Each structure stands twice: as structure tokens, then as C-alpha cells.
Amino acid sequence: MELNSLFEKSARKLVHASAAITRSLMGEIDWNQRLIGIKGARGVGKTTLMLQRLQQQDLPPNKALYASCDNIWFSSNTLVDLAETFMKQGGHTLFLDEVHKYPNWAQELKNIYDDLPELRVVFTGSSLLEILNARADLSRRAISYTMQGLSFREYLALESGAQFPAITLNQLLKNHHELASDITKQIRPLEHFQAYLEHGYFPFYRESIQLYSSRLDEVLSMMLHIELPLLRNLESSYIHKIKQLLQIIAESAPFIPNISKLSERIGINRNTLISYLLYLHEAGLTRNLFKDVKGITRLQKPDKIYLDNPNFYFSLNLSPPNIGHVRECFFLNQLGYRHQIEFITDGDFLVSRKWQFELGGKSKSAKQLQKAPNGFVVADDLEIGHQNRIPLWLFGFLY
């Protein structure tokens, strides 16, 4: 079987792969595993991460191969065909991009894992990808990782070259004054923060800030028109209504859904609407908050809904978005990557069932947190905090 065209395209991709920044996920993945899955929303940088890893391995050209699963080559060949031929020709590591575009991907990856034990496979897919596919039983085989867009820390590294290590939430809460003092000796975070909120989440902003909003629209459109119908059987007749729903969330966040009224307004029955709210969250378009995550079911409505990241608010709003909504979205996005967040009435957020946070501007009071033993005020427009007052931007250093 002829693999020359795939090797040529792989080599071409490598030449143009960005080396501007290595994402923090690179050091967290156990690259020694035989089957590694990386899932995440479109545009967050999965392909770049994969190509950077291919470059790092420094293997001879015939030992490592990148292939996108929407390549026309797969119209007459299978993943198993590729893996078997590649290994017979001396292949060591196969990088498969966007496996969700290939039918029966889970079963074939299982076969490759079981039948070709000498071959290592790294694959990427949509946020909606079921890595732990019950039918193919990948749960015992694939090690799964989730990737999201740039953290504020990673954005600063791209914009200024300033390199800072990621910090844990425990470190941040105990030592935020010292951490912020050290960082502000090297860079003024607030000088860059607004730009990050507007256009810094997706790495492709570096290609053209002027075209960033259009690219975001393309990302949203691809998720709604291709990924949701393909992976969640979203009916095409509902896509316009889902766009309406996103617009409503963007303009009124934090959005507290009244399912009956919303169902009537956009013409979708109650259970279907709740399912779609779940799909939007899984796809990385929204963030759904519940008062008690332990007791939730698939047909339970969220208590609050935000867009997934601050950039979406600037893209989907016809007028400048409410800054309070944007700051809450930023906090949710950066902490939600590694921590469980719940909606509470005494404050804004409960994190890991331990810490309570109240968000606001520089002069925000701690009145709502008086009875909270682990309560913190997170303040925007604050460079360095004091006691239980922490600058909002510092939460962008958690990954």
C-alpha cells in the first residue's frame, strides 16, 4: 500500500508547525502509553500540540507519521490498513488527527491496539468524542486527556516572552500576594488582560486579530453544523434555534434558564432543550452550573449557564458585553479545567466543595462571605491582593 502522499503531507505540516509556545499539557501527557487520546474544542491547538510532539521525538522520517482522518486517502483505505502498512515499513508512532471524522474509529483503534502491540498511536478528536467508548471498550486501552484554549499565563508567554510556571489552586490561595508580587516585577498583567478576554483564548488569534471574530464564527458554525449533528444527532432543522439560544445566553449571562419559557420561545420541547443544553456544554460552547453536581441527571436543567470562554461574549454580543459576566466566565473557564465548580447563593461560586468565591470590581466587599471559613473575594482591576482579596488575573496561571 502506498503511503508516500501521507508522508509528504506530514512533512509539509511539520515545516509549518508553530514552535512559539509549548502548551502546559505537553508535559502532563504520559507519552510512553501505547494509545493516547487528546480531545478538545475546535481551534484550541490539538493539531499543533501533536505536531510539536512529533518534532520533539526526533525520529527518522519513516518512524513517525501524522495523518488527518478527513484526508481523501481514507475514502479507499482504513485506519487498520494504515497502521499495518506503516508498522511493516518500520513505523513507531502514528499521530491521527480528528478521528471523529472517521466512521467506526473506536473499533479500529481497539483492533490496532490489540493486534499491533509494537505501534504507538496518538489521536485527537472533538470535545464530544467518547474516548471511553463502551462498544469498542477503549476504557481499558486509551489514556484520555482534555485540552482547552490558552490560559492567561500561556497568552502572556506568547505576547511578551515572559515564562512563568503554572501554579496550583492551593499555592494561589496561600501565597497569592507573593506570587502576584513576583509576576508584576517582570510584567504588568493588567496591561494585557483585556486583550486576552477579547481575543486571547484561541491560539489562532496570532494569525490575524482583525479576522479573529470571523474565525470564531467559523468555529461555532463548524461545531453546530458538523460536530453536533455527527456526534449527537442534532437535527439540522434545530441549528438556527440553537444559535438563537447561544445569543440569548450571551446577552443575559449569567443565564438562569426558565425551561418552560425558553422552550416556548425557541420552539423546542422541554426534554430536547435540556439535552441540547448538555450537548452545548460537552462541545465546549457553554458552561453549565448546578447547585449540587453529585445529584444531577442528564435531564436536569442547569441553575446557571455561561458561554464557555470570554472571547465568545465579545463575538456573540452585538454591543460590548457586561464586564461582570465576562469576569465570571473567565474565572469559571480557568478554574473549571481542573476543579469542580458549583453555584451557591452565599457568594458566586463553590470550588471543590471547599472554597467560596465572590467576584467583583476592585472595591468589591466581602459582606456575602462573612460566614464562610474559606471565603475569598476575587477582584478585577487589582494588581496585587491582600489577605482574602485576590486579583482575578492570577487565576489565569492555573495551567
List the helices and strands and how they pair.
Blueprint: H1 4-16, H2 25-28, E1 35-40, H3 46-57, E2 64-68, H4 79-88, E3 93-97, H5 105-115, E4 120-125, E5 143-147, H6 152-160, H7 169-184, H8 189-199, H9 212-232, H10 239-252, H11 259-266, H12 270-282, E6 286-289, E7 304-307, H13 310-316, H14 323-336, E8 341-343, E9 349-351, E10 355-360, E11 375-379, E12 389-391
Helix pairs in contact: 4-5, 6-8, 8-13, 9-13
Brief rundown of the structure:
With 399 residues, this protein is an alpha/beta fold. It has 14 helices and twelve strands.
Supply database-style keywords.
399 residues, Rossmann fold, 5-stranded mixed β-sheet, 12 strands, alpha/beta, 41% helix, globular
Description:
This protein folds into 2 domains: 4-147, P-loop containing nucleotide triphosphate hydrolases (Rossmann fold, 3-Layer(aba) Sandwich); 154-397, no CATH class. It is globular, with a radius of gyration of 22 Å. The protein contains 14 helices and 12 strands. With 399 residues, it is an alpha/beta fold. α6 packs across α8 (189-199), α8 packs across α13 (310-316) and α9 (212-232) packs across α13. It starts with a helix and ends in an 8-residue tail after the last strand. Helix content is 41%, strand content 14%.
